[in-house]
Amino acid sequence: MDKKLLQECPVCGGTLMVKVLLCPACHTKIEGDFESPKSKILYLPKKDLEFVELFIKLRGNIKEMEKALGVSYPTVRSLLDGIIQKLGYKTNSSVDQRNRKEVIDKLEKGEISAEQAVVLLKGQEKEEE
């Protein structure tokens, strides 16, 4: 069972500190006042961590992410934007502009239908709201 390390005290909201480290193999116990990890990424839900791991494995290639996850480009972007926001960062609207251009380019090349382009562009508009 995976349990996440808590950052805040559920009673008073104070910052929690790690006091004991335990080796599960030999049961060595080390006690002290240890600093908690600062990276917010460590506190993401398991599903998001798996997405980030796959994203890194695929070197950030969204087309490969589409194939691996069996979802559309806007879905991958939406998942990625959600993780970016959970980490406390804003998503970049210039990236959205680039995505619109990609949809239009695909439409012009005949890679997608007009209906598919409308769905993709409307999906991007909803993400911006």
SSE topology:
Blueprint: E1 18-22, E2 29-34, H1 46-57, H2 62-69, H3 73-86, H4 93-108, H5 114-128
Antiparallel strand pairs: 1-2
Task: Note down, in words, how this protein is organized.
The chain has 129 residues and is mostly helical. It is elongated, with a radius of gyration of 21 Å. The protein has helices at 46-57, 62-69, 73-86, 93-108, 114-128; strands spanning 18-22, 29-34. It has a domain at 41-128. It has five helices and two strands, in the order ββααααα. The mean pLDDT is 83.
Report strand %. 5-15%
Distance between the termini: 37 Å
Strand order of the largest sheet: 1-2
Q: What's the count of strands?
A: 2
**Can you write the helix and strand succession as a string?**
EEHHHHH
Percentage of residues in helical conformation = 40-55%
User: So how many helices?
Assistant: 5
The secondary structure category is mainly alpha
Rounded average pLDDT: 83
Descriptive key words:
single chain; 129 residues; mainly alpha; two-stranded antiparallel ribbon; 2 strands; 9% strand
In short:
With 129 residues, the protein is mainly α.
